[in-house]
Amino acid sequence: MSLLDLDALTVRRGQCPVVDGVSLTIEPGECVGLIGPNGAGKTTLMRAALGLQRHAGRSSLTELPASARARAAAWLPQAREIAWPVTVETLVALGRLPHDSRAGKLRSQAVDSALARMGLEAFRDRKATELSGGEQARVLIARALAQEAPLLIADEPIAGLDPAAQIATLRVFESLAAEGHAVLTSLHDLTLAARHCTRLLLLDRGRLAADGPPLEVLTEENLARVFHLRAHLLQTDNGPLLQPLDVLP
Ligand SMILES: Nc1ncnc2c1ncn2[C@@H]1O[C@H](COP(=O)(O)OP(=O)(O)OP(=O)(O)O)[C@@H](O)[C@H]1O
User: Fold this and answer.
1) Which PROSITE patterns does this one have (predicted)?
2) What is the ipTM of this complex?
């Protein structure tokens, strides 16, 4: 059974569609990277799929009652403000709210596992507001993991993380997919997208310009047409490497 089904999803800002007739299905086991230039509509597409943005067309998630939707999909927004000086453990435990209204007061296996996956055990009793920006980002990812929803939708989750933390986070997403969950994540690092995603969606001015295995999406032609980028794609024993070289006119 699919975890997300979009049919002709469209979002208009004024007259202009910023998401334009997007149809796709996400199945358990997939780690799907959503790529496209700034302003292509990635955030808008994810928010509309979750029912957080007025839209036309259909998203299977929005057909669920709010409480069921909160158990069906975890959402990690791009904004990362942590307003309250609660401990890391308490903040991560808030991810359990869709399952238990006492979340935040109870120690749980899901919270322990989310902290361990994000390498945050040593931060458990620290105030979340007193961590660095990258550490706070990892705490917010852990909160989304603690939700243990079948589908995780994440908006630029690795922005601002150091290189090791970026790879470690994408490995967590891969392992979630391997366990039968699915991940939809927007990314700007095309090499990491190629190396860690099972499938890429390329968005171009709101339209789905390509959808498939990473190397079938990251073609010279797509990179030039959609990103205005000249890039060198190398196949190595350690997987693909994509080096952007120049901006095309
Ligand atoms: N609140 C808003 N009001 C009007 N237009 C908006 C609003 N938010 C976004 N837009 C426009 O919608 C389009 C898509 O924006 P969106 O944030 O979805 O892009 P994105 O692909 O996530 O970009 P980025 O990579 O820069 O985060 C852009 O042209 C943007 O200017």
Assistant:
1) ABC_TRANSPORTER_1, ABC_TRANSPORTER_2
2) 0.97
